Amino acid sequence: MNGNPILETFHLNKTYEGTAALKDLNLVVQPNSIFGFLGPNGAGKTTTMKLLLGLIRPTSGEAQIFGEDIREESVEIRSRIGYLPQDPRFYEHMTARETLEYTLRFYFSRPQDLLEERVQETIDLVGLHEIADRPIKGLSSGERQRLGIAQAQVNYPDLLILDEPAASLDPLGRRDVLEVMNRLRKHATIFYSTHILDDVQHISDTVAILNKGELVAHGPIETLLAGSGGVVFSIDLKGQVSTAQARISGLPWVTSLQSEEKSGVTRWLVSVSEEAAAERDLLPAILSGGEVIVVDYGRKRYELEEVFMNIVEGDEHARQ
Amino acid sequence: MPANSDLTPVISQGWTGGLGNMLRGQLGRWFGTRTWWTQALIWILVINGLLMTILTQDSSVGIPEIATLFVLFAGMFPSIAVVIAAQDAIVGEKEKGTAAWVLSKPVSRTAFVLSKVIGYALGILVSLVLIPSVLAFLEMQLVGQGGLELGRFALAVGMLWLYQCFYLSLTLMLGTFFSARPAVIGIPLALAFGQQLIFGIVPSLVNILPWTIAIPFGNNEFSIISAIIIGRTPASMTPFYVACTALIVFIAAGLWRFEREEL
Questions:
Q1: Which of A83, A266, B47, B70 could pair covalently with B104 via S-S, beta carbons 3.0-4.6 A apart?
Q2: pLDDT at residue B145 in the model
Q3: Which residues of chain B make contact with A111, given a CB cutoff of 8 A?
């Protein structure tokens, strides 16, 4: 990552009638990153996005986008942002093409031929060419979502804020959206929320997890996927594992060993306190007795869903 | 594939940010759709149709009477249409989420409200005031055989427009304060038609509230605007000045409130 943060929040809080929707949020989004913003329903994701866009006011705290204060320079900041709301709504009397031209004219005034060219190119990008000249009131929710993505990026923004961009889309539409996001990362920073953890794992480089208005995890996706419970090795074995298990459990740098058998294969999850010692000695120690065959061996890699559930559920338990 | 550097950027600064495009969109809603001509047609039928019916049935009607009737019809009835047309302008956008969408663009909240005020005011001017008034002028010229003075009539038309803008600004302001339509539509209509009741309780308000701008009341034979058309001195100009002041106050209050709206 490079340069100054595109987006930074400092102890951002939002309270609705005494109920905290967002508590002390501190976020940093680096330029040209795809930042996945995760959390269960009601976690405060949409509230955060609305605060950043000036649609609602923070109860306390500050935020900066492009180094400028979101309250003082909101219009100026929004001239460099594209936003897709969770449930995109447009003027029903306009067509998709008119909506895109109307949107583009908030940013650029002329020349007309190039504005039209930009609109057409955006229509093609999101696959709306067949319905571009139909009134919006006749569009399906998936088509509206595509139009939402189109209007969010028609001005080639420096920062895209997307609230559930893949919602309402079929698998093909979802794939297209991810492709568009991947393509845009060269020119823009993308800050987006989603429930589809698989997508986040594929395209995000940084992730924040919000639960009940509080930030419970924030960092590069690789760090999150590596897990927070120390170094864990995953080993699949065949043979008489009990002797080997006793031997490995007795090693001084092994902190725990979980064993699970499935279809004739035993899987061990070995947590270690000394990574270097484990990398050097664990596999030889397993094989030293000759009673087992190792069929798979490696560092355990968590799925994002697992990490997400661990963090959110851990946070819930901590609150109780 | 045009790059951003090939396009001329809109300079969005302060409260004017996005005003031009918002206004263009707002005017497109009125003049780019059938709204402008259907509204014009309705009010031609109501205002000019009623005038023509009276003129053809009673040949003794003179300019003072027909001017009074014109101002009565053109003042009272379209104000209902103004309230009904404008009641959805802000509440509807808040409810549907289009206000939040537009305000995620480089648009100031002041520009959002002003585009509604200016857009509706111009639509009302053309469809509800100007077109029926031009036809009424011709009708009255026929009756008075050219006895109407154009300058006074034009002034009266301008005052009629401001009278309608009084109700427009009140409705738009209420749209910034309330999320429910009944209040936004009910309060202006109650004011429009409840003033006679108020005068019964506090008679001195006759010379303050806007009712007498377009409708004669009590001892006054002519409303303020009809008196101007026929070259008489109005009994009191205070209601007109009060309406103009209220119009500005309503717009200012609407701007103040919408600045604090959570979308």
A1: A83
A2: 67
A3: 7-8
